[in-house]
Here is the input.
Amino acid sequence: MGTGELTSALERLRSALAAATLPLPLPGAESQKVAVRTLTNQLDDYLLPRLAHLDAPLLTVVGGSTGAGKSTLVNSLVGRVVSTAGVIRPTTRASVLIHHPDDTDWFGSQRVLPGLGRSSEPSHYPWVLQLVPEPSLPRGLALLDAPDIDSVVTENRALADQLLGAADLWLFVTSAARYADAVPWRYLREAADRSVALGVVVDRVPPAAWTEVPSHLGQLMLSGGLGSSPLFAVPETKTDAEGLLPEAAVAPIREWLEDMSSDRRTRHKVVLQTLDGALVSLCRTAPLVATAVDEQAAALAQLRSDADASYAEAARAVSVQTADGTMLRGEVLTRWHDLVGTGEFFRVVERKIGRFRDRIWGAVKGEPKQAVEAKVAVESGLETLIRAESDAAAERAESAWRAHPAGRELIAAHPELGASSSDFAAVAARIVREWQGGVLELVSEEGKGKRVQARFLALGVNGVGVALMILVFSQTGGLVGAEIGIAGGTAVLAQRLLEAVFGEDAVRRLATRAKTDLDARVEAAIANELVRYHQVLEATGVTDTAAEEIRAAVDLVVHARSSSWTDVTGQLPAGTGPAALPARQAQEPAELGTAVAPGGAEQVPEIVDAEIVEDRP
Ligand SMILES: Nc1nc2c(ncn2[C@@H]2O[C@H](COP(=O)(O)OP(=O)(O)O)[C@@H](O)[C@H]2O)c(=O)[nH]1
Ligand SMILES: [Mg+2]
Here is the structure.
């Protein structure tokens, strides 16, 4: 089986992470996005290529703070100036990668650090690796002089992180003056966390601090979980004309590096240690991304339901107000009375000649002209109502979104969501017109060929239609106080008129149909307004499946991990094993390989003092 299962599990995790875009600006989202990028880079730059080529050369990344002496150390290890030291900062330039000429193919290919360009010359472009073949380096070992971890240039810092993430081995350089600083320790803690194979160099140790500084740093390393990584102390010396350190100062470091890469078995051990540490850390961090994705999906669902609720309320409000008498006011009422007289008048008529309901036609005074005017009044009243409720829905949705950090950002990007669509007035006019057209059709269809034709004609199709609209508007009778007198009478009159034309049952049926039709048209128009919010939410790219996909992929990685190592080496890396990484749980860092420093993790780091021939106190 080899590492195939692990590779495909990691590839699945890679694409699951690509879907975790975390677009909503929730608290913590920025750092979560950085975490996604870091994981993705580590998969691309290190885990996947390394897994595909376990025998590939060891990449040692020399990292540390500005001016710690990284470039000077690299040059001194190589024995000539390959990387510019002491350049004026801040500056950006290609990172220098020195390798044995036989390893050119590996480092020249895009299999390792595929996001970076390659150059054989020094370059001022930071996202480029300057490749320097060097026959004096052992085969299978490469040194990379990384940008400063504390560079003032953001790009440099990001690149330093990316390169350290892609390293098999860290050579971490700090100085006697800065070794306890926060920034280097953030990196050293990460190295401990990820069980990276690591050596630490404390540079430029002045004579007076020679006993104190290395042993203090050793103690810090021990308590920081780096007890088994070697610590190299380099005394402050003069550099030579080329800017190189005395050979004796760097010899122990060179020997250690050569030991680490001397044979295939030792190289494997280093590679597997860092690789497995990276896997463990990946399996610990990726579920946090899944949680972040869940939070995004939950925020999205909340915003969606806020918008849905605002618009459902608009549809409901129109439905209620077109049935409870609200519409029977002002112009509508006036025009209706112009057409059929007042309710007061009608009540008198009905009381006196109750049985002779047909006589109510005597109450009708209007001409077709008044019927049309009443219809127009209904049209404009209804339009006003629908537009007002649509505006109110937009305002409600906007203020609900503003109360949410992600919603605030979306509203800022889409200010048009705070009001009805620009064409909504036209939409409202159209649906009211269509509804009225439908009502007229309904009554003329119903009136066809009936014996009531004459009465029908007395009021005209517009008049009968308006009567049905008036009836619809008063179906639930929510009128109060003085309104009852006029509007209530109005509604009863409309009902009696219609009953005289069509009969009671037909009137009930017609009113229900007209109301259902109105509600459906309003709901459709309102739903269409709501779509705008859904579209904005969908465009964020938040999906609710991404989190589960990440968790599933992590489970596969956890499962594939132990069996892969057994297949590759016949044994598990020290300190690991099937029990070492229970699914979806935190995990102890794997133990460092014994080739680095004999002994267990309890040990104080082996402090290697360079023997300096000159300048030694
Ligand atoms: N005297 C002395 N100077 C050093 C030593 N290490 C570095 N330097 C000088 O310190 C400056 C910064 O060193 P450099 O290697 O560029 O540091 P980097 O920023 O970590 O790459 C350069 O001017 C070096 O010549 C050392 O051990 N002794
Ligand atoms: Mg440098």
Notes: The mean pLDDT is 85. The pocket of magnesium ion (ligand 2) is lined by residues 70-71, 85 (CB under 6 Å). DSSP finds 18 helices and nine strands in the chain.
